[in-house]
Amino acid sequence: MTDQVTAIVLAAGAGTRMRSSRAKVLHEIAGRSMIEHALVAVAGAGVHTTIAVVGHDRDQVTAAVTAHDPAILLAVQEQQNGTGHAVHVALQALDAPPAGTVVVTYGDVPLLSSQTLSELLVDHRAAARTVTILTAEVADPTGYGRIVRDHDGAVTAIREHRDATEAERAIHEINSGILVVDGEFLAHAVARLETDNSQGELYLTDIVGRAVAEGRPVGAHVLEDVWQTEGVNDRAQLARLGRELNRRLTRHWMAEGVTIVDPETTWIDSAVTLAADVTLLPGTQLLGATTVATGATIGPDTTLRNVEVGEDATIVRTHGSDAVVGAGATVGPFAYLRPGAELGAGGKIGTFVEVKNSSIGAGAKVPHLTYVGDADIGEGANVGAGTIFANYDGVTKNRSTIGRHARTSSNNTFVAPVTVGDGAFTGAGATIREDVPPGALAVSAGAQRNIGGWVADRRPGSASDQAARDALADAAQAEAEPNLEATGE
Ligand code: UD1
Ligand code: CA
C-alpha cells in the first residue's frame, strides 16, 4: 500500500546569473518552462499534494504554476534564508504536518524524470528509511554538498562545499538536492534547524545529521544518469540541458518508430506527439502541441507550432502555427501557415502561399504565389497563381467564399466579402468585387460580366458543371417550394 505523498518544489531563488527580466524557472527547454518540467515530473510520480515555494519574481512564477495546475499550493518565501527555511515555509501552507512521505525537489532541475522520483520513493519505502537522498558521482563536485559516509558506507551527513574540510571536498558523491523524507520527521527536523554555517542560512541538508543523531535510518539513492541532477544557473547551462533533453526526445521517438534523418538538427518539444512511420527531415522543429499522424513526412527546414498533421501528408520548407493539414495533403515548399489555416484531405498549399484563418476543402489546390486570408475554399476548387484574397478594407476584415469545384484563374483579386459559386470560373486578371453565380464565368476587363451558364455550355459534363447544376437545382427547388423549405420538410 502506498501512503500519502506531498511534493515541495523550491523555486524562490533569484537566478541572478540568467541576467533576465524573466524569472529563472520560467526559462524554457523543449517548449516547457523549467518549473513546468519539475511539476510534470512530480505529478507523474504519484504525488497527491504539491506545494511550490516562490519568492523572487513571485508574480510571474505564481501565474505560471497556477496556469499549469490550479490545484498546486503556493507558499511565499519573502527572504531566501536557505533551503531549510524554504521547506519550513512550504509546510506552513498545509493545515497539519504532512502525514505520509515528502519529496523535495527544485524548480531549476529540468531533466529529472518521474521515473527517477518513483524509483527513489520505491527505494525509500523498501528500505524503510526516514530520509533518502538522491545522489550522484560527478567528475567536478565543486559547489555541491558532499555525501559524508562512515567506514561502513552509511551516510552520516551532507556537508556544503563552503563548510567542508579538505578531506570532505575530495568526495565526489554529491547531494542532488532532491530527497524523500518522512513527513512528520521533516516537520520536526525543519523546526530545529540552526544557522551555524558559513552562509548563516537554514540548510535543509542538516536534517540528515539530525536523523543520524536520533538513530533513524538514512540512506542514499545513487543516480547513474547525472544529467537528471543538473541545475540551471545560466544560459549556457540552459542550452546544454536543452540539447540533452532534445537528444532524449529524438531518441524516444526513434524508438517509437519515427525516422529522424538528422537528430542533431531536429528539435522536438516535450508535448509533441508523433505516430510510427513519420519521417522528419533535417532542420525540422516540431513545437508546442504539434501532432503528426502516421506516414507523414516533414521537412527539410520546417517549423510547426501547434499544428495537426494528418496521415501521409507532406510538408516541405514550411513555417506554420495553429493550423491543420489533412491526410494526404501537401504543403510547400516555402509555405506560411498562420493561425486558423485548415487544409482538407488531399489538398494542396503550394509555393509562396500564405494562409490565415481560412479553410481549404478536400482536394482543393492553392498551388502558387497566393495570399488566402479569411476565406473558405470549397472541395475540389483550384485557385490560380498569384491570387490575393483582399480581406481587409482598412477598417474591417471580411470573409470570402470560393465554391466547390470552382476554378479561379491567375492573378485574381477577391475583394471581400465576395462569393464565387460552386463550379464557377473566373478569367485571368479578374478583380472580383461582386458575387459570381454557380457555373458562371466572371471576367472583369472593364465592368464585370457574369456569363450565365458558361460552364454548362463550355465545360459540359465536368465536375464543375455537375456542381453548378446541383447548386442551381437546389436554388430552383428552394424558390419553387418556399414554404416547405421554411418548415424544414
Ligand atoms: C543546494 C544544497 C546542496 C546541493 C545543491 C544541488 C542545501 C543547503 N544545499 O545547494 O547540498 O548539492 O543544492 O544543486 O540545501 N531555494 C529557495 N529558497 C532558498 C534557497 C534556495 O527556494 O532560500 C531554492 C533555489 O531557488 C533552488 C534550490 O532551492 O531552486 C537550491 O538552491 P541553491 O541556492 O541553488 O542551493 P545550493 O547552495 O546550490
Ligand atoms: Ca544551485
Describe the model.
This protein has 489 residues and is α/β, with parallel strands linked by helices. Helix content is 23%, strand content 30%. The strands form eight sheets. Strands 12, 13, 15, 16, 18, 19, 21, 22, 24, 25, 27 and 29 form a twelve-stranded parallel β-sheet that branches. It has a nine-stranded parallel β-sheet with strand order 14-17-20-23-26-28-30-33-36, with no helix packed on it. Strands 5-4-1-6-10-7-11 form a seven-stranded mixed β-sheet, with helices on both faces. Strand 4 (49-54), helix 2 and strand 5 form a beta-alpha-beta unit. The radius of gyration is 31 Å and the shape is elongated. The model has no long low-confidence stretch (mean pLDDT 96). Bound molecules: uridine-diphosphate-N-acetylglucosamine (UD1) and calcium ion (CA). Uridine-diphosphate-N-acetylglucosamine (UD1) binds at residues 10-13, 53, 55, 77, 80-83, 85-86, 106-108, 144-145, 158, 160, 174-177, 203-205, 231.
